[in-house]
Write a structure and sequence with these properties.
Order of helices and strands: EEEEHHHHHHHHEE
Oligomer: single chain
Largest sheet: 2 strands, antiparallel
Strand content: 5-15%
Strand order of the largest sheet: 1-2
Number of helices: 8
């Protein structure tokens, strides 16, 4: 099929299968390229922090939060809709970060779940859920009409594409507890974690 130009305010834009909006990379199959780029940026930032490995644990934790995790989970709402397999790619970076923060060696046999408790870091899937839930709660309190419109869409609205799921739908359908998923070789398969 022939792809036509898109006109916005009289300005023509050529058709493209990918794009970028406010730092979010979009493609015809969702956010796959964005995940790859976020992981690479976060991993690069983490590598730069290794020079500080002998600093105090709390200082390294703050460096991780400021320079690595902030890059890893941006933007929260789209990433909140990702599949467990996609989130696990981001989780692997944080698993490495917990070992950097605690100076844990691979032969210490510490699981990622143990290191997360030690560093007081929430797993990525739990963190994204909590942040997304907070954002939707703020929208509900500050813009109730818009919140209702997003919560109960018109019947004429198209069904969301499988590659672009709804964060709000995921919040509404989420159970009171979620499962923490980490890389199988570094953690228990799943650990129950309450969401505040």
């Amino acid at each position: 099929h022939k792809k036509h130009e898109v006109h916005v305010d009289g300005i023509p834009f050529p058709y493209d299968k990918s794009g970028k909006v406010l730092g979010l990379h979009l493609g015809s199959q969702g956010y796959t390229s964005h995940i790859t780029q976020r992981k690479a940026i976060a991993q690069n930032n983490l590598s730069r922090l290794y020079r500080f490995r002998y600093m105090h644990t709390e200082t390294k934790r703050k460096l991780y939060l400021a320079y690595v995790r902030s890059a890893l989970i941006y933007p929260v709402i789209p990433l909140h809709t990702l599949s467990p397999s996609s989130i696990s790619k981001l989780q692997r970076v944080q698993n490495k970060a917990t070992r950097f923060i605690t100076n844990a060696e691979w032969h210490d046999f510490n699981t990622s779940a143990q290191l997360h408790r030690q560093t007081k870091l929430a797993p990525i899937n739990t963190l994204l859920h909590e942040h997304a839930k907070r954002i939707w709660t703020n929208i509900k309190n500050m813009h109730p009409q818009q919140y209702l419109h997003l919560t109960f869409p018109q019947e004429t609205r198209q069904i969301p594409h499988r590659a672009f799921l709804s964060s709000k739908t995921k919040i509404l359908g989420a159970p009171s507890n979620t499962q923490i998923h980490m890389t199988p070789h570094t953690a228990s398969p799943s650990t129950s974690s309450p969401l505040g």
